[in-house]
Amino acid sequence: MDMLFEITATLVAQLQKPTLAFLIGGMVLAAMGSKLEVPTPVYKFIVLVLLLKVGLGAGISVREADLIALAVPAIAAALVGVAIVLLGSRTLARTRGVSRMDGMATAGLFGAVSASTLAAGMVMLDAEGIAYEGFIGALYPFMDIAALVTAILLARMGAARAAVAIPAGGGVATVSMGGANGDGIVREILTDTLKSPAISALLLGLAIGLLGRPEQVYASFYEPLFRGLLSILMLIMGMEAWARLGEMRKVAHAYVFYGIAGPLAHGALGFGAGLAAHYLTGFSAGGVVLLAVMAASSSDISGPPTLRAALPEANPSAYVGTSTGIGTPVAILSIPLWIALADWAIGI
Amino acid sequence: MDMLFEITATLVAQLQKPTLAFLIGGMVLAAMGSKLEVPTPVYKFIVLVLLLKVGLGAGISVREADLIALAVPAIAAALVGVAIVLLGSRTLARTRGVSRMDGMATAGLFGAVSASTLAAGMVMLDAEGIAYEGFIGALYPFMDIAALVTAILLARMGAARAAVAIPAGGGVATVSMGGANGDGIVREILTDTLKSPAISALLLGLAIGLLGRPEQVYASFYEPLFRGLLSILMLIMGMEAWARLGEMRKVAHAYVFYGIAGPLAHGALGFGAGLAAHYLTGFSAGGVVLLAVMAASSSDISGPPTLRAALPEANPSAYVGTSTGIGTPVAILSIPLWIALADWAIGI
Amino acid sequence: MDMLFEITATLVAQLQKPTLAFLIGGMVLAAMGSKLEVPTPVYKFIVLVLLLKVGLGAGISVREADLIALAVPAIAAALVGVAIVLLGSRTLARTRGVSRMDGMATAGLFGAVSASTLAAGMVMLDAEGIAYEGFIGALYPFMDIAALVTAILLARMGAARAAVAIPAGGGVATVSMGGANGDGIVREILTDTLKSPAISALLLGLAIGLLGRPEQVYASFYEPLFRGLLSILMLIMGMEAWARLGEMRKVAHAYVFYGIAGPLAHGALGFGAGLAAHYLTGFSAGGVVLLAVMAASSSDISGPPTLRAALPEANPSAYVGTSTGIGTPVAILSIPLWIALADWAIGI
């Protein structure tokens, strides 16, 4: 009874958080035909500030971490991020009726990390008195950026192959052309991805956070503006999502299934990778739990602006809806599962 | 002597406040032919953030108030807001030489509430040791939104009737057409008003404040940015006001009279409504004073952006000038009057 | 050894500061062909907020200072600012291969003041237990605005003379025309300069800071946003600087020489003026040191947005590169020199 009440309360609390509330608000406004609009230059500025903030934060936390102890879990985190996206590209993005672009964007978000879900995991471990490494926060960018770059790269490669395939005609020709020009296409797409405004801003922030000393401007400007500008971005994305919802209705069941099953499968992946790091380098049980929580989480903060800018063709109502609406509550509700699993496998 | 010095000091202090100082600064820049300009997308973003803030703040304070004790004073506050606008529409807006649009916008601002005047009233009551209900802050949106919606609705209905009247020719035809299509016009205008960017943003903020939990983003983003963005909005409005001052000079005497007499008449209305609530539900004497202060005050914060976006045809030099330049100082100077009146009518 | 280490550490710390890090980051992005861009309306908004902040801060500090004790050092500061720009206009701006516009903009920045260099000087004096006047902060705007206005005025006058000269043909005709219309041109340029968006915003802030009471909005909005918006402005300027670097390479040696010799010559000018004020009014030895530090410093905060808006033709890679890249580290490294000089000349 208490359990049921707690689950319901957690779900309602998720919906009441500004991120989701502004997203829903934007959808309601669009549904009611409101004439509210956010000018494009303002949208571009918001995305720039958000991505610089994510990059700066990641750079600062990597710089401050002990790099040697960080190496193994960081590689594990990056591999898990890539694996989640590859898994999504073989499952969701190949589902009949799901556009490859939308499927890859969704997989990218589910591979990326939610800072608030991670924080919820830390708070739960603290409450149970379970210790974990101090550098856990620095693992965030490894999984996050690995997943987003992989997803954007795969989505663009798919789009490029499709563009090549159409004039070529038959399926055999397509495959051989894809094989012949594969390296050139990958190089071009990687260059394009790095030059895209979204990845440029993210990497600039990362470099300045790593090599510079932007702590003061980060704390006085980027950090305080972050949640506020995010709320306005969510409003924009909600209005857009509603305007494009018609297309999504046909395929909603695949996204709903992915939104529920994904966090559990991804969390298990993260748990396995954490367990390997535990046996290799003595990574703590608390750290294993938090790696699972990161893997189970789907990005509701860093991911949407990156994908929105890098894959403008993808439908936000698909990826943001699935991630923020289904994936995040499921990920938060599954945290006790990873704690129980770590207690069983390692002992806490 | 002390009294005179205090009044002068209060007036000078009003003019030195950023709100009025930036308004005057904008007028001076425009008068000097400065090429300074604020780009339109930035203006739209500022208005969006300001209206979301006002809505969020109202929603949060309504949610936190005791709804049953709040009901009677809230209805009283809303009725007073409507009454002030109706009074203005029969007096100022019918004055020869005052454009109906400008008159209604001015009446709307005088019906709306100034948070800083209300705060001044609370500080004076605290200094005199007079108690009042804790939920007073939650009455603000009732009077504020009721007045603004009424003013916008009446102004738009007037504009629509005028548009219908011109092709119809004679006065009799106009009246009959207004009667026949009256309901349709009201419905259309109400729909248009709700869909307008200004009211959309205000209601969105209200809904999220009421149903969500935006306290953190409100405190870290919307609240701190509010006064700053308002200062830039005032600068824009000052520049615009000067550019349109030529039209106002012909009718300035009507606005000056309304700016002085309005706060006293409106305060008396609010005092009467508060007195009724006192006899009905035991509303405190301090509460009655603050309802009078709210009614006497004219909005210098929430009102201008709403009206600016909803009634772009109205002249800011008329409504902002009358409200911020004349109405607000008169309202603040009249606070001791309502305290003395409450002492005489109820006893403190 | 310690000395060498300290100098290297100071230089690296300069490069790691957000101002320079974002400037370099913007150059690297542009060099890599990134498609990142900041929309023009956002750029205009950033400049407006930065200039209002600089003006407001200056106005507030002038208002709070003791005006009589302030007068002599303030006049000295303004004269030093003008002298530095005149010196630059006779040297750097006349160097073969240096465009007059770029040379004047650079001289303007070297005449203007760096708040962070000034703060470094204050911290060093505090550490040595050397006293100085409390109103020193209020001298900043006098030197800063005097230098910027002089530089903009001279650059515009030069451009106007050049425009007149071209149709006129021969050198003799140019001189006589310049002489005949000189007063008209000066008046026109002064009017244009005052009406320019940059100077309008700066003077508006100054007036409101001086006559109004904007302390609250200054502390809650303009101050916290300042460094953050500056970081984005630096990013824009870095991208622009790279795009125009080709032109600068030919003349780089002149800028490098000015960037190294300038702060030492200007500091000596400031020291001399301070010494005169010391003998005239008893201006403290600490004050003399700080006047020298101010003169040696080159603006990395207030100057770039002012010049960027007032002299859009000037190349930021010249003036920002020389000032932030060379002038500021040299100025900081020369602070101990002025302390030693004051000890020798006055005794501390």
Description:
The structure is a homotrimer of 348-residue chains. The first copy, chain A, is an all-alpha fold and 348 residues long. Chain A has 16 helices and no strands. Chain A has helices spanning 2-16, 18-31, 40-64, 67-90, 100-111, 115-128, 136-168, 171-195, 197-211, 215-243, 245-249, 252-281, 285-296, 303-310, 316-333, 335-345. The two termini of chain A are 28 Å apart. Residues 168-180 of chain A have low confidence and may be disordered. Chains in contact: A-B, A-C, B-C. The interface between A and B is medium-sized, with 29 and 29 residues.
Shape of chain A: globular
Most extensive chain-chain interface:
A-B, 29 and 29 residues
Q: What is the assembly state of the chains in this entry?
A: homotrimer
* First and last CA, distance of chain A: 28 Å
Are there runs of chain A of 5+ residues with pLDDT below 50, and where? 168-180
Helix amount of chain A: over 70%
Helix count of chain A equals 16
Strand content of chain A: under 5%
* Helix/strand/pairing category of chain A: mainly alpha
**What is the rounded Rg of chain A?**
20 Å
Largest sheet of chain A: none
Helix and strand run of chain A: HHHHHHHHHHHHHHHH
Average pLDDT over all residues of chain A: 82
Strand tally of chain A: 0
